[in-house]
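ABC-type dipeptide transporter: C-alpha cells wanted.
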Amino acid sequence: MSLLQIQNLNVRFGDAKAVPVVDGLSLNVEKGEVLAIVGESGSGKSVTMMALMGLIDAPGIITADALNFDGNDLLKLNARQRRRIIGKDLAMVFQDPMTALNPSYTVGFQIEEVLRQHLKLSGKAARQRALELLEKVEIPGAASRLNAYPHQLSGGMSQRVAIAMAIAGEPKLLIADEPTTALDVTIQAQIMELLLSLQKDQDMALVLITHDLAVVAETAQRVCVMYAGQAVEVGQVPGLFEVPAHPYSEALLAAIPEHSMGAERLATLPGMVPGRYDRPLGCLLSPRCPYAQANCRIQRPALDPKAHSQARCFYPLNQEVA
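Answer:
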C-alpha cells in the first residue's frame, strides 16, 4: 500500500462552480521514494501539497475521492486528529525561509516547540535534541545559534533551521516546496544535498516541488508534470527525460538551455496557459499543442492509472504508431 494516495483531488477558490486550481489530480507516493512535481508557476504544484497539509482556508474548497496518508483518511480527521499527523509524520519545508520562521522567537524555542508538541520532550531533553537537530542540518556553531533570532541568520541558515523543524518529528513524508528558490546558487546545491542525505538517513519519502528540471534529473526517481492544475504525465525520471509521453513534457525539456545550444532562440510553445474564462472544452493544451487532432479540442483525455508511463494525452509521443 502506498504511503500517500491522492485520488481525484480538486481545489477551488470561491464556490463549487469556480474553475479548479487543482483539477482531478491522482497521485501516489511510495515509502522511501523521491518524487518531483514540476510545472510552471500557477500550475497547482504548491496548492496540491497545501491541501494535503490542511493549509487551504476559506474561500478554498477541497474535494477528493481519497486523500489517504499512512492508512489515515485526511478528509475525515478532525482538527485534533490532524494535528497528531501534520508536523510529525507529514511535514513541509516552505519556499521562503525568512517568512516560515517566527521573528519573535529564538531558533531554539521554535524547534523545541515542535519537540514538545509531537515527541512530548521538554526542558533539557528538548534543548539537547534541538541542538542535535541543528548539528544534523550542518549549521556551524550550532550551540550559539539556539539563542539567535531569525533576522540574525542568513537565508541559507534560515532554510536549514526550517528543515530542522520539519524533521524534528521524524516524518515519514517530507514535502519540500521550492526549497532553494530564495537562495543563491552555491547555497542551493548545499540545501539539495542536505535534503537528499536526510531522506536516505531517515528512510523517509520526499516530495520535491520545483520548476528546475536539472534538479529533477539529479534527485528524483519519479516525476509528476503539472499543467493548468492537471497532472499531465507521471513516470520514471529516466524514461520521461529520454522519451516524454506528453507534448507539454516534451516542450519543458526542449526549453532547457542546454538543449537549445546553437539555436537562435529557446524552444517555446505558442499561446498562453488557459485562464479562468478561456479554458478549452477539450484537452487544456490543445490550443497550443503542435500534435492536436480534432478530438483533442472537444474531449478531455485522462490519465491511465494502469499504464507504466501515464500521460493525459490521446496520442502519447512514446506510443508506437501501428
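The first strand starts at residue 4 and ends at 13. The radius of gyration is 21 Å.

Cheers.
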